[in-house]
Amino acid sequence: MNKFEYGHETSQRLNSGDLFKQFNNYRISKYITDMLLRLNKTDLVHYKVLEPGCGSGNKLRFFTELRIEPENCYGLDSSEVAIELCKKLSPASMNFQVGSALDMPYDDNTFDLSVCSGLFGCFNEDEDVEALIAQLHRVLKRNGVLFIIDLNENFNDMYASSEAVMAKNLRSYNSQNQELQQLLSDRFKNVATIPIIASESYGNQQGNAAGVADLPYIDHRIDSGNWACAYSMWVFYNN
Ligand SMILES: C[S@@+](CC[C@H](N)C(=O)[O-])C[C@H]1O[C@@H](n2cnc3c(N)ncnc32)[C@H](O)[C@@H]1O
Q1: Which of 3, 139, 146, 231 has the fewest CB within 10 Å, making it most exposed?
Q2: Does residue 79 line the site of ligand 1, with CB under 6 A?
Q3: How does pLDDT run across 112-166, given as a tens digit for each residue?
Q4: What CATH number is attached to the domain comprising 180?
Q5: Measured from the CB, is residue 122 less than 6 Å from ligand 1?
């Protein structure tokens, strides 16, 4: 565990990582909500949403807070353990399925929204990324909105000292040189790219773990471009 106890995934006990996780989720949810309002995608009670690579399903559950019906939420993951966890943590009417994001078990033009959080980083081969993009284009409706939350150009520097993270061999995408935008350009139009979460850099100016009083300052610095984030959110329209 690092000096700020960022270990909520494995720890049995509440620690400062849990506070940062809440803060990360707040930043993700405020920007998803902001983008839906700005894109005039507000009729959420009629929308279907898909999260491929849903992990524990927490992003999908967030969409129910925006009035998406649980039965219109779909989660797909290649891990049986993840899908079992989703079923345990979510309303029974949500739809969860074990399967591959590279060959999705859904009809064409099914979803109004999709969120991929940490999924693009799982694929090191361009042909897999292309297959994922083709599947997202196929299952999303025209003008459907795709949120991608993933590692950016700061990832390697920020995590270089963490052997456990580097051993995962994750792919990152440069948000400055339009890397992801280029990969999606045949099918999707980029409407925003936002620095989203800084993860392990949540120290305060005294070098201690940030407390809740520090978070507005960090929030402001991230939003004003003065705090390096390892994750960005890319927002696309399906063309
Ligand atoms: C970094 S985790 C992110 C989980 C969740 N989206 C979140 O934000 O907390 C990536 C997830 O993608 C899943 N995954 C990896 N490759 C996949 C594939 N080909 N098809 C479906 N899911 C996949 C993994 O099992 C894992 O649950």
Answers
A1: 3
A2: yes
A3: 999 999 999 999 999 999 999 999 999 999 999 999 999 999 998 888 888 888 8
A4: 3.40.50.150
A5: yes
Residue 43 CA to ligand 1 center (angstroms) comes to 28
Place of tokens 């280029």: 182
What is the token pair recorded at 140?
């999303």
pTM of structure: 0.94
Alpha helices in 96-191 (DSSP H): 126-139, 155-159, 163-166, 179-184
Quote the ligand 1 centre to 176 CA distance (angstroms): 25
Whether 180 is in a domain gets the answer yes
Residue 167 has a CB neighbour count (10 Å cut-off) of: 8
Atom of ligand 1 nearest to the CA of 100: 20
Domain that holds residue 132: 20-238
Is residue 143 domain-resident?
A: yes
Give the integer Cα–Cα distance in Å for 75 and 49: 9
With contact defined as beta carbons under 8 Å apart, do 64 and 41 qualify? Answer: no
Residue 48 in tokens: 């279907």
Over the stretch 177-228, which tens digit does the pLDDT of each residue have? Answer: 999 999 999 999 999 999 998 765 677 667 788 889 989 999 999 999 888 8
User: Does 161 reside within a domain?
Assistant: yes
Give the nearest ligand 1 atom to 76 CA: 21
213 Cα: distance to centroid of ligand 1 (angstroms): 33
Total structural domains within the chain: 1
